[in-house]
Amino acid sequence: MGANGAGKSTTLLTIAGLLKPQKGAIYYQGRDITGLPAPFLVKEGIALVPEGRRVFSRLTVRENLELGAYLVKDKGEISARMEEVFERFPRLKERQRQLAGTLSGGEQQMLAIGRALMARPRLLLLDEPSMGLAPMLVREIFRIIQEINRQGTTILLVEQNAHMALQVAQRAYVLVTGRIVLEGSARELLKSEEIRRAYLGGQ
Amino acid sequence: MAKGKYIFWRLVALLLPYVLIQGLLGAGLISDFQQITLMMMGINIILAVSLNLIVGFTGQLALGHAGFMAVGAYTAAVLTLKIHQPFLLSLILGGLAASLAGLLVGLPTLRLKGDYLAIATLGFGEIIRGILNNVEYVGGAAGLLGIPRLTTWTWLYGFLVLTLLGVMNFVNSTHGRACLAIREDEIAAETVGINTTYYKVVAFSLGDFFAGLAGGLYAHYFYLIQPSSFSFFRSFDVLVMVVLGGLGSITGSVLAAMGITLLNALLQDLAEFRMIIYSLLLILVMIFRPQGLMGRREWSLARWLEKRGEARGPAGS
Prior knowledge:
The complex is a heterodimer of chains A (203) and B (317).
Chain A: H1 8-15, E1 27-28, E2 31-32, H2 38-43, E3 46-49, H3 61-68, H4 75-88, H5 90-94, H6 105-117, E4 123-127, H7 135-150, E5 154-158, H8 162-168, E6 171-176, E7 179-185, H9 186-191, H10 193-200
Parallel strand pairs in A: 3-4, 4-5
Antiparallel strand pairs in A: 1-2, 6-7
Helix pairs in contact in A: 3-6
Chain B: H1 7-26, H2 32-57, H3 65-81, H4 87-110, H5 116-134, H6 153-171, H7 174-184, H8 186-191, H9 196-219, H10 232-245, H11 250-266, H12 273-288, H13 301-312
Helix pairs in contact in B: 1-6, 2-6, 2-9, 2-10, 2-11, 3-4, 3-5, 3-9, 4-5, 4-9, 6-9, 7-9, 10-11
């Protein structure tokens, strides 16, 4: 969590290999992955759902998902993964031949998550999945995120919606201008006076 | 359904234009002027389809297609005229030289995101012209004269088909998918593991290879090449064909290249006035069909035959 410009998205983009860090190191499963290129990291099981969804809008839902498994060569494996994604998001199955740009915001977010899941990540990076969605859809998306997490995928979530985020997370970090100023279990932070004042709008 | 069902009809469609025109040429029914227009059509189709690969399918704006055409034209012409190499070898080396030039321009600029390629290629086109103007070995501003006329309808048609098949196969492969993804959203393409720099450079230098081929064919048809034949206006012409036909439609590029070449020939007497008609045409298309004539669609022989089959009743009955 953190205010605008705190460095939340930059952190995710750097972990995913889209940006190179100027200093410091990134460790993943005990291995130094600093500065490794994105395709390599995707293969290693790190997938990013970028801010603003960024679906391939003039390609169909199906083509979007196929591209999510871009590094997988085995056709059978790809369709097996797609079935899994369709099971999780039946809406996407109904709309598989539709152009992604014609989907609603919530559906596009589902597609963006589905596309990332096609890579079968061990670590899923989510950048503000609630952005611009109606409250009901936000709850739905968070339910799905929790479900993915329970099935064994580690999730690193960046959120403006601090209340929602703290309710589903196990651990939380607060960033201010690129530094962690507060960290702890989500339950602790939810009760913390500082957090209440700054992010949850309580007096 | 058998995959090779339409092979016969495909071959017919592929060979029909060739045989037809070859027959007319043999019978002397095509005037010199018509023949020039015809050859220009073929060359422009190669240029437009190859630029579409870069601009339409990969989404990278390139403004120097004439520059790469010049590299191919001069390389091939020097090889046949001065070093007496066989035509086919010269053409291919011309294409490779253009492709190499594309690599040199593309590698530094395509690593970045944004419109750097447009600026770099615009500059490249002018630099090439500047160099050619000042190198005595290739005739300076007067150009290279007396290039053997080796480009025949057969050669041209052969390379035209090669270009179409080459670009179509690339676009429909996984590589093509990667390029489409880059066009749609470069950051998203990176997140799914596509090496964006690699594919942008591959598409760009492949497109430049075909531009170089077109240059070689051009040089060996018109006897004479001059730096001024490869100005920015030619790059712009090709870009207009691509936009008019539809970014991302090979069929569209073919149709637009034919149409604009024909228009150019018909309006030849109007000289500069031509540009006004051109601009009007572009403005009209942008107002009424902003996606270009074909949009992203392709015309497919198999689909067409199938539709006709359905209209006549179940296939095979």
